[in-house]
Structure formats: C-alpha cells, structure tokens
Amino acid sequence: MRAYSIFVCNVDNDNSVEILSSCFSLSRFSYFERNYIKEIFKFIVRSITPKLKPGIQEIITHDEFTVFSYKWNDGLSIFMICDSDFPTRIAFSSIFEAYIHIRDQNQQEIFSTEENKKMYKAINTILNKYKPLISDAIIESQIKIDKAREAINVSLKSFLDRGENLDELIQKSNDLSESSKKLFKMSKKTKRPCCSLQ
After folding, report:
1. Domain coordinates of the chain in residue numbers?
2. N- or C-end of the chain: fewer Cβ atoms within 10 A?
3. Where is 59: in which H helix or E strand?
4. CATH number among 3.30.450.50, 3.40.50.300, 1.20.1250.20, 1.10.1670.10, domain 3-129
5. What's the pLDDT tens digit per position in 42-67?
6. Nearest alpha carbon to residue 20 among 106, 86, 90
C-alpha cells in the first residue's frame, strides 16, 4: 500500500488548470520510469480537475493507480495518487489534512511562490507519512476482516462444491429459526437471494 503523489490544483474561471504544488514518491519505479510516471500523473490531474464537482469525493482508477480527489467551493482541488490497495479513508483524511494546512497558511485565492514552497513542504510531509503505508489499528482490523471474509467465502464455496446440498443443510440446521428457513425457501422460489456473499 503506497502513496505516490499529491497534487494541489486551482481552476480558473476559464477552466484552465494551474498546478500549484505537487510532490512525488516514486522510489518503487526504476529511474527511467519516473519521468514517464510523473507525466502520466500530471496528465490525469489536468484532465480530471475541470470535471470535478465541489464537495464530492471522487475515486478514479487508471491502470494500477487509484486517484483520490476532492474539490472545494473555493476552486482548490487536491489529488492523492496511490496504488490500488491504498485505503480510501486514509487517502481522503490526508487530502483534508493538506487542505486545512494550506488554508491555515493562505486564505486568498492567489498563491505566491513563497506560499507554494510552504505548500510543497506540507504535502510532502503528508505523502511521506504513507510511503509505504504504516498500518494503524483501523487498517489492521480492516485487513483482518477482509482476510476472514475471504477465507469464509472460499471455505463455504469449496464446502458446497463438494456435492453438499444447501437445501438439505438448511433443513437440518438447528441454528436457523423457522422464519429464516421460510425466507430461504421463498427467496429460492422467486430466484432472488435473501443474502449474498461478498
């Protein structure tokens, strides 16, 4: 789980995109790939920024990358580009953290070169926190839950694939109430699932 880049952009009235600041963590890529990756990221950000609607968290995937973005009513947009496994909660909390820091430094719409340098330091600090992601308790719990869910799905599917009939198992079960058994029968007749495995 890696974060590769953070961009801070502003959209002018004529929909032109100005990249105010950006930082990268591309050590995972070879030296020769890094420039190409930076160009792709800039292209993605410039393409997406004018289409963002204020106040909506956007998640866009491109190849092996996930782009998290948010646009504020003041026109400022912040992007965090990560690998496909990066947790959504952390990406957006990082984006909001960057915005708060930027707005604490500058309340105006125009940013000077000095303010852009401060902005770079702030977003670079945020990016460095998550390369690679240092798991916190919530992430570790989510990973454990996902692994357990996957194991249950695999176990249940392999169990049922061995020729066991689900109808017979449900009728024999002492754990299910009569209403649950009826619900299962009814859902089977109407061919609408009463529950689904994810």
Report:
1. 3-129, 165-198
2. C
3. strand 58-62
4. 3.30.450.50
5. 998 988 888 889 999 999 987 788 99
6. 106
